[in-house]
């Protein structure tokens, strides 16, 4: 018979992703007794490592932008190093099966004009938006009433512009343009520092990777919290009685003064709350559905595309692979291409078929040498068995204006963190850290301490 352990703590943190580990770290360093309860049998959440040709690579979060100072502080705390994302040379563009080796933004002249026209319109709308309370924008109701796709149609966006925006939507929200609200798109772009910043490698969101993978970093952070991290313990119930909150998993019952839930909003409602959360919190959970994005890695003896002056960056409207990057450890090899794959043309197939589809498209993009792969691996976030989905919620029309204000509003003794709740860089690891710090600070204040801002 299984026995249930009964414990107590000042604070229980639900979720051992970067937000949860940060919140716990801040509170432990302030002297509080903290337990972290994680449903998966590993830490990291949407940060995960896998291996290809003996090289560890990031199946989840990878890049750190120059302004992601919270993330950079964490890397330097553990003596980590960055590797600049390789981007020297030309990109490959393939729309409608026509492959062009040029700068990645080089479309036909009329397509370029249309793309800049639409990007400028997007940026103008972005400029006036309040990031922390987008529902307060005077035009919020209208901007939130339509999907990004409907807006593009209203702008008479040309086919290539739409394909470009689809790629942007798939990689950021794991969903096509018709599934995300325009207000969500604008708010997200603003929160990441503008569209140019989002697209850039040097000086932008794709600037650096972490040497030895991001997962290695979160694992080291989790190591400092041992033995406070309980893995393989999905939280089933959170019950508030008077001044105490009880967190129950199959194996643990923990009494605490406060709980910080860091599960992505869609997964909050998998927990049974007593008393029930106010109704809008369930609405939030229903409408903040996580998208689905898949990553495939293909290894070659060397990064052969570099010999032809190619950067390994490609953009495509293929139904499987829509974006590639060169994540080779060095010019000597192995050469590793990382491919972002559209879950709709990828997730339903078995591994052999996925591999066949990815390599077939890499041959189209990079020529015959791409057929001779040394190794292949992939990961589908939509098919993950616990807390599936990623990278970000595909927030549909009307969800921000109806439920957005409840994202981080505490309910009794329960506080909320997670990258989605961050005011800046939400959707990134940096946002996850900021949200963890904010929730830790809220709880510490209620426990009678004021936390020092942003300890590194
Ligand atoms: C494919 C992909 C690529 C990405 N690329 C980048 C990138 O290049 N740069 C970047 O900055 N960000 C990137 N991201 C986003 C980044 O991974 C996230 O923003 C960040 O890791 C979120 O951290 P979090 O702690 O808020 O949430 P999570 O990592 O989702 O952590 C939440 C945790 O809660 C746990 N949980 C859920 N429900 C329960 C429950 N009932 N009981 C117990 N535990 C529970 C989950 O298992 C999970 O571990 C990417 C994400 C994906 C999927």
TrEMBL record:
Entry-linked PANTHER family: AMINE OXIDASE (PTHR43563), AMINE OXIDASE [FLAVIN-CONTAINING] B (PTHR43563:SF1)
Binding site for substrate: 340
Record protein name field: Putative amine oxidoreductase
Chain sites annotated for binding FAD: 235, 420
Keyword entries, A-Z: Oxidoreductase
Family designation: Belongs to the flavin monoamine oxidase family.
Domain Amine oxidase, residue spans: 18-443
Source species of the chain: Actinoplanes missouriensis (strain ATCC 14538 / DSM 43046 / CBS 188.64 / JCM 3121 / NBRC 102363 / NCIMB 12654 / NRRL B-3342 / UNCC 431)
Molecular function GO labels: oxidoreductase activity
Cofactor(s) listed: FAD
């Amino acid at each position: 018979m299984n026995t249930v352990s009964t414990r107590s703590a000042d604070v229980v943190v639900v979720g051992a992703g970067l937000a949860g580990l940060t919140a716990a770290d801040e509170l432990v360093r302030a002297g509080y007794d903290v337990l972290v309860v994680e449903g998966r049998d590993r830490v990291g959440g949407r940060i995960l490592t896998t291996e290809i040709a003996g090289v560890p690579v990031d199946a989840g979060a990878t890049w750190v932008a120059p302004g992601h100072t919270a993330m950079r502080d964490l890397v330097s705390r553990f003596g980590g190093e960055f590797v600049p994302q390789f981007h020297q040379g030309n990109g490959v563009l393939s729309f409608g099966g026509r492959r062009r080796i040029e700068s990645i933004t080089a479309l036909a002249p009329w397509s370029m004009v249309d793309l800049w026209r639409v990007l400028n319109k997007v940026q103008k709308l972005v400029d006036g938006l309040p990031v922390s309370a987008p529902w307060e924008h005077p035009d919020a109701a209208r901007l939130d009433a339509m999907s990004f796709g409907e807006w593009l149609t209203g702008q008479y966006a040309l086919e290539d512009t739409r394909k470009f925006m689809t790629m942007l939507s798939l990689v950021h929200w794991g969903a096509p343009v018709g599934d995300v609200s325009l207000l969500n798109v604008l708010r997200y772009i603003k929160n990441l520092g503008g569209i140019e910043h989002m697209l850039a490698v040097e000086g932008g969101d794709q600037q650096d990777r972490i040497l030895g993978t991001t997962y290695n970093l979160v694992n080291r952070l989790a190591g400092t919290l041992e033995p406070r991290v309980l893995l393989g313990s999905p939280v089933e119930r959170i019950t508030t009685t008077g001044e105490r909150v009880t967190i129950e998993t199959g194996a643990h019952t923990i009494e605490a003064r406060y709980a910080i839930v860091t599960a992505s909003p869609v997964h909050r409602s998998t927990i049974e709350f007593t008393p029930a959360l106010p109704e809008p919190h369930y609405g939030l959970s229903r409408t903040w559905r996580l998208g689905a994005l898949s990553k495939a890695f293909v290894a070659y003896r060397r990064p052969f595309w570099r010999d032809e002056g190619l950067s390994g960056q490609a953009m495509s409207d293929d139904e499987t692979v829509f974006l590639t990057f060169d994540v080779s450890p060095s010019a000597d090899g192995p050469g590793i291409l990382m491919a972002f794959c559209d879950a709709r043309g990828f997730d339903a197939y078995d591994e052999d078929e996925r591999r066949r589809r990815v390599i077939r498209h890499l041959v189209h993009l990079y020529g015959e040498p791409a057929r001779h792969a040394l190794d292949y691996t992939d990961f589908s976030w939509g098919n993950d068995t616990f807390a599936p989905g990623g990278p970000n919620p595909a927030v549909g029309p009307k969800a921000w204006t109806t439920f957005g204000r409840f994202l981080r509003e505490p309910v009794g003794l329960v506080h909320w963190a997670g990258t989605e709740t961050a005011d800046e860089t939400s959707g990134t690891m940096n946002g996850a850290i900021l949200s963890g710090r904010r929730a830790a600070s809220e709880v510490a204040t209620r426990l009678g301490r004021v936390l020092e801002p942003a300890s590194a």
